[in-house]
Specification:
Rossmann fold; alpha/beta; 25 helices; 36% helix; 3 domains; nine-stranded mixed sheet; Transcription Regulator spoIIAA
């Protein structure tokens, strides 16, 4: 039951609510594809609160109707400074469509989970409407849809290359990544009277200018030019080469300014800010959020995305994994930005004050749960680094991977008198806890963390993401060999046995990923069965803008080597790979049999259908563990390498 609070505790979303704040007009109006949830996990709320903290009057128009007379877009009139536009917490096309391009029937960011409250390509659509209604008012773009579409990108749903979203939307400036730092600088300059169209040297922003104009001067920046959008349309290799430059520069501590020509214009992408400090992170999370959906949604049903994170705590941002299918580092960066213990414990206290809180925190985590406060030992080495991942193909010797700060923080949360259990619901990066892979791992540190997590913070079962079992596919994914997952499972099961626990380990896998062939999926099914798993958590690869895997999917080559890479692209190929996950279902058994026997994989078929494998649903096979990989699988891998 949502507590009753005065409307002025929220940012205004209606003309009537301006009166509660004593305002007649607004400095900034935010347009969002999500319902308004005043919580730090929701970008529009965080942006709104930051703008408010700078002394400006800000309102939000959540999920405006774009199909009627556009009254939603008109209700606040023109803001004094600018419109801020975002599609919401997700790319609108990922939000709308499955990997098979089927329309989703629900939307987790809408009351009642009802679909249909935002358009396809929402950021672009909102901007086009605003430019028609208010041609003289600047538009500032932000959010993940804009961020990951800031340069020429492949759109899976249209099956073609799109130019920078600034071109189609008509927006004036784009803030990419997590936007607190550029947003505060933009606001402070505007308050000083600097014209919006003069904001050209703010880090972590993009804009278009005529090619005939000189680039804005900044003596601290070097420049690098990409192949033009038109060249990318003609040559997939140039598009792939562009991606490598964008990814490398986006993950540098000292990056170059990127330019790309498009028609008569030039896209300018300024280098990012340095990773946010603990103090800067706290400043965002400590703002006066109500932590509740706006009261107007009370009769429309719960907002699923909010219900999922209502009692969770985000401890840090960023991910140094650099997985080729993931957009986290592309948006949040590869360097970890962590909050202070004080800020986190303050939020824990806020959570416990919620009338609906029953003593259980659903997640203490981040993009990868066990990266809190991890960073380079010598920052000068990090400043020279151009690797997109700190842990692939090996863990960097300059990376401090101690889990001690997390273990200590978990214990402090556990000690809170109103917290019965605090779960780690985010996925754990298991390879950081395997000595064979993480050479600088402190055994005592790792054991203490594992003991703490397994005995105190697992909600029935623990999620981890090996993603695949085939080494060749894992190399494309930028993930470690599956043999390290065997080692992790040994440790996990040993600690469980020690404490008399039965909490299944739930591995996540991806099918039809670039580099994955049908035989790899058959072997995955057989190896995981031999380990005692009957897989339930399965994801079909979906190409999304700004990932290595998407570039491979479109171009057919790896952007770092420009060498051809196999890609399962047809609907039938993707369906067949997915079916191997569910070999045990009656409707798939004959298909699996025919497919494997026809291709000469009799031994794999016998492993899937015969005896001698572990029991399903998370019980570990007595025959398999650590490096004790079955002979049939070793032979299969040797054939694959040849």
């Amino acid at each position: 039951m949502q507590e009753k609070r005065p409307y002025q505790d929220w940012l205004p979303i209606t003309k009537k609510e301006l009166e509660y704040h004593g305002w007649e007009e607004l400095d900034v109006v935010l347009i969002s594809g999500d319902a308004y949830v005043d919580h730090p996990a929701f970008g529009p709320a965080a942006v709104g609160r930051i703008i408010q903290s700078e002394g400006l009057r800000v309102g939000i128009i959540p999920q405006p109707n774009w199909r009627d007379d556009l009254r939603d877009f008109k209700k606040f009139g023109a803001p004094k400074l600018f419109f801020g536009v975002t599609s919401g917490c997700m790319d609108s096309m990922v939000n709308h469509y499955t990997a098979g391009k089927r329309k989703r029937s629900t939307d987790s960011y809408t009351p009642g989970g009802v679909a249909g409250f935002r358009p396809d390509y929402a950021t672009t659509k909102y901007c086009q409407i605003l430019k028609d209604l208010y041609p003289d008012v600047p538009i500032l773009l932000g959010g993940i849809e804009a961020s990951l579409r800031r340069v020429t990108h492949y759109d899976y749903w249209a099956d073609k290359l799109f130019p920078t979203i600034l071109e189609d939307s008509g927006a004036d400036i784009l803030v990419y990544g997590m936007g607190e730092q550029p947003l505060r600088d933009i606001i402070n300059l505007l308050k000083k009277g600097v014209p919006f169209d003069s904001l050209r040297t703010i880090p972590q922003t993009c804009f278009l200018q005529p090619k005939s104009e000189d680039l804005p001067k900044n003596k601290n920046w070097e420049d690098v030019a990409l192949a033009s959008h038109e060249e990318c349309l003609e040559d997939k290799l140039k598009y792939a080469s562009n991606f490598k430059v964008v990814e490398v520069e986006s993950n540098k501590l000292k990056a170059r300014r990127i330019t790309q020509d498009i028609g008569e214009n030039r896209l300018v992408i300024n280098p990012p800010y340095k990773t946010m400090t603990e103090k800067e992170m706290d400043a965002t999370f400590d703002l006066p959020y109500t932590r509740l959906p706006h009261p107007k949604y009370a009769k429309r049903g719960a907002i699923p995305a909010y219900e999922m994170i209502k009692f969770s705590i985000n401890m840090h941002r960023g991910c140094f994994g650099g997985c080729s299918f993931c957009t986290i580092s592309a948006h949040q960066g590869k360097f970890i930005a962590s909050r202070s213990e004080e800020s986190i414990m303050k939020e824990v206290e806020q959570v416990t004050q919620d009338p609906d809180f029953k003593g259980y925190i659903s997640d203490l985590g981040g993009p990868s749960a066990n990266m809190y406060k991890m960073k380079g030992i010598d920052e000068s080495i990090c400043e020279k680094c151009v690797s997109p991942s700190c842990i692939h193909p090996v863990i960097c010797s300059n990376l401090d991977t101690t889990h001690k700060p997390m273990t200590d923080l978990y214990k402090k949360v556990d000690a809170h008198p109103k917290v019965k259990k605090a779960f780690v619901g985010s996925g754990i990066r298991y390879d950081l806890l395997v000595k064979d892979y993480n050479k600088q791992l402190d055994d005592t540190d790792a054991e203490e963390y594992m003991e703490q997590v397994v005995t105190r913070h697992v909600s029935g079962r623990l999620k981890v993401a090996p993603e695949h079992t085939a080494d060749a596919t894992l190399r494309v994914m930028r993930k470690p060999s599956f043999k390290h997952f065997h080692k992790f499972k040994e440790s996990y099961d040993r600690i469980q046995k020690k404490h008399g626990l039965k909490q299944p380990l739930i591995p996540y896998f991806i099918s039809s990923h670039p580099g994955c062939e049908e035989t790899d999926m058959a072997n995955l099914a057989a190896e995981t069965k031999d380990m005692g798993f009957q897989l339930e958590q399965v994801q079909d690869f979906t190409p999304t803008p700004m990932t290595v895997a998407t570039v491979i999917y479109y171009s057919g080559v790896h952007p770092y080597t420009l060498k051809p890479t196999f890609v399962p692209k047809t609907a039938q190929e993707k369906k067949d790979q997915h079916r191997f996950f569910f070999w045990y279902k009656p409707e798939n058994k004959d298909w699996v049999k025919n497919k494997l026997l026809k291709t000469g994989n009799k031994e794999t078929y016998e492993k899937l259908t015969g005896k001698g494998a572990g029991k399903a649903y998370g019980n570990q096979s007595k025959r398999t563990g650590g490096d004790n990989v079955p002979k049939w699988l070793k032979e299969s891998r040797k054939k694959r390498k040849k």
